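Dear Dr. H.,

I hope your travels went smoothly. While you were away I took the liberty of generating a structure for the chain from your last submission, since the lab meeting agenda had it listed for discussion. I wanted you to have the full record in hand beforehand rather than looking at slides cold. The sequence, exactly as received, is reproduced here:
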Amino acid sequence: MLKIKKLILHEKIILAWYFLFFLALLNSCSQEKVVKNESIKNEKTVTRTAEQLVDSKKNAEMSYRELMNILGSGTTMVQLGILMENKQMIIEGSGLILNHAAPNEDPWLIMNKQDQEEFKNSLLSYDIILDNYAREIAEKAKEEDWLEVNKKTYELINSCVVCHSLWRHKVK
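The corresponding predicted structure, in token form, is as follows:
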């Protein structure tokens, strides 16, 4: 009986992964392709304001939390692609991270007034960090360098965790 319950749970998990993959794939089909060589170059410096960063993105009817869910779906897709050694899945997941839309409300408004300027600076820094990791992940996936893809994915996720630990407790 225990084996049947585990098998059913295992099947549910697999179905959930495929459902997430399908949703992410639908979203990424309309995204700019990451596989173009010119879109793989790394940004190294912050040359714009947080307002300019948000303005540079396509605006979407979503909250900042929903944006985080999309970024998480891209990361999940990358992780599943690593396990399956599916480079296209990894490239598409990276595309979700690189080409995400902006929420309809300025992201820093989720913070108390006294934290907003610092949060804006953090957004600028982490946008570059996440984009660079997503580009590197896509490039290494094209080369089928699974160990390096996995290493860069760990570094990407670690960046997410660090940012969340710095800011999550300060959200209004």
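Two observations you may find useful: Residues 2-170 form one domain. The chain is about 70% helix and 0% strand.

With kind regards,
E. W.
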